[in-house]
């Protein structure tokens, strides 16, 4: 997330919790952490999510599966420990899946604005609707972390830059569509479930960002509501 260089716009989750771990140290530098042998507080839930035998006891195979999930979604430390951050990501995935193809069932995103991009911070989901008709999504997104929250309310897409680069963080923000100060929809090169979150932008996969780019236009409404876990 960054400000817009040509407009001088204002720059502008899950809260990371520290799980017990043992890091092997040698020659004054940290070495790769070994796979955790500890049973975590969310062992059974995580075993079930990963399709492992649910016995509530850490095994080498459990650790390998948990560590692979952590590595994919950049959850640290990725030592295979069944802790709260890892379970938080999995629990969010479960809740997102349960929404199905009716993300606006509660009617919180306006249906009288025509084409509008909706962002549910609580479930970390976004979609595009036209009136009551779902046009695309819902798709998982990664919004602002604690201290850099994505602002709520009704705004509009006011500037688009397909090859934008953040002037604050010097990172690419492809398919940027800015809707509130320096906050924008854009693609990101990491997992959209990676904690703790963005610096305020609504991150999404390249596939979804391209679809948003091709569907939305300058002046289209954006409505952000809810509260991201951990903020």
TrEMBL record:
UniProt domain L,D-TPase catalytic: residue ranges = 114-225
Which SUPFAM superfamilies does UniProt cross-reference here? Answer: L,D-transpeptidase catalytic domain-like
Lipoprotein as a keyword?
A: no
Supply the EC number(s): 2.-.-.-
- The record's top EC class is transferase
Its signal peptide is 1-32
Q: Tell me the InterPro entries matching this sequence.
A: LD-transpeptidase, LD_TPept_cat_dom, Transpep_catalytic_dom
Q: In which pathway does it act?
A: Cell wall biogenesis; peptidoglycan biosynthesis
Any one Gene Ontology MF annotation carried by this entry is: transferase activity
**Keyword field contains Signal:** yes
Active site: which residues? 186 (proton donor/acceptor), 201 (nucleophile)
Keywords, ordered alphabetically: Cell shape, Cell wall biogenesis/degradation, Peptidoglycan synthesis, Signal, Transferase
Name of the protein described by the UniProt record: L,D-transpeptidase
């Amino acid at each position: 997330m960054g400000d817009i260089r040509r407009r001088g716009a204002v720059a502008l989750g899950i809260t990371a919790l520290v799980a017990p771990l043992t890091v092997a140290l040698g020659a004054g530098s940290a070495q790769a952490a070994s796979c955790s042998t500890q049973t975590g507080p969310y062992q059974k839930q995580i075993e079930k999510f990963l399709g492992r035998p649910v016995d509530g006891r850490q095994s080498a195979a459990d650790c390998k599966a948990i560590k692979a999930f952590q590595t994919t979604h950049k959850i640290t430390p990725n030592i295979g420990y069944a802790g709260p951050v890892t379970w938080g990501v999995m629990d969010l995935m479960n809740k997102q899946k349960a929404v199905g193809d009716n993300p606006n069932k509660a009617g919180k995103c306006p249906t009288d604005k025509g084409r509008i991009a909706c962002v549910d911070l609580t479930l970390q989901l976004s979609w595009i609707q036209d009136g009551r008709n779902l046009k695309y999504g819902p798709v998982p997104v990664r919004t602002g972390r604690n201290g850099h929250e994505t602002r709520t309310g009704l705004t509009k897409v006011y500037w688009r830059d397909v090859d934008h680069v953040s002037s604050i963080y010097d990172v690419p923000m492809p398919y940027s569509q800015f809707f509130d100060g320096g906050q924008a929809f854009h693609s990101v090169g990491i997992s959209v479930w990676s904690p703790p979150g963005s610096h305020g932008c609504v991150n999404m996969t390249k596939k979804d960002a391209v679809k948003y780019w091709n569907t939305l236009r300058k002046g289209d409404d954006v409505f952000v509501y809810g509260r991201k876990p951990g903020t």
